[in-house]
Amino acid sequence: MTAHPILFLPPNEQIQDVLDISPAFHLKYPEPIFAGSVTYKDLDGNEFKETFRIDLTYLKKRIYIRESSLIDELERLNDTMASIVRYLHEKEERPHED
Questions:
Q1: Sign of the torsion angle spanned by Cα atoms 32, 35, 36, 37
Q2: What is the C-alpha to C-alpha distance for residues 16 and 52, in angstroms, rounded to an integer?
Q3: 58 and 21 within one domain
Q4: Do 74 and 26 share a domain, yes or no?
Q5: Do 94 and 72 belong together in one domain?
C-alpha cells in the first residue's frame, strides 16, 4: 500500500492493509514505531497534510503460537516410528511376558 502514491480516493472510502505482526516482523523491526503523512487536496485545490505515528511495540508482548511445520511433523513421525520399532524388538526378545 505504501509503495506507490494513491492518486484518487473518493469521499467516505478507505484503504486497508494488513501488517505482519509475527515474531519475524519484530526481528526485522526491533523498534516497530512508524511515522508518515497523508497529503490530499480538496475540490478547490487546497492542500492538507496530516502526519501520523504508529507504535506497534505493544504487540511484542503477545504470545505467538506457531503452527507446526512439515519438518516438525516429520520429526514427530520419525520419533513415533522409532518407538514402535523399539517396542517390537523388545517384544521379539521377550515373547512370553504378556
A1: positive
A2: 16
A3: yes
A4: no
A5: yes
Q: How confident is the model at residue 63, as a pLDDT?
A: 57
Residues 9 and 44 in one domain: yes
CB count within 10 Å of CB 32 equals 17
- Domain shared by 9 and 48, yes or no: yes
The residues facing 38 across adjacent strands are 50
Tell me how many domains the chain contains: 2
- pLDDT tens digits for 29-85? 889 898 988 888 888 999 999 999 999 888 877 755 566 677 888 888 999 999 999
**What range does the domain containing 42 cover?**
1-62
pTM (2 d.p.): 0.49
Best CA proximity match to 52, nearest among 67, 65, 32, 35: 35
For residue 50, what pLDDT is reported?
94
22 CB-near residues (< 8 Å, 6+ apart): 64
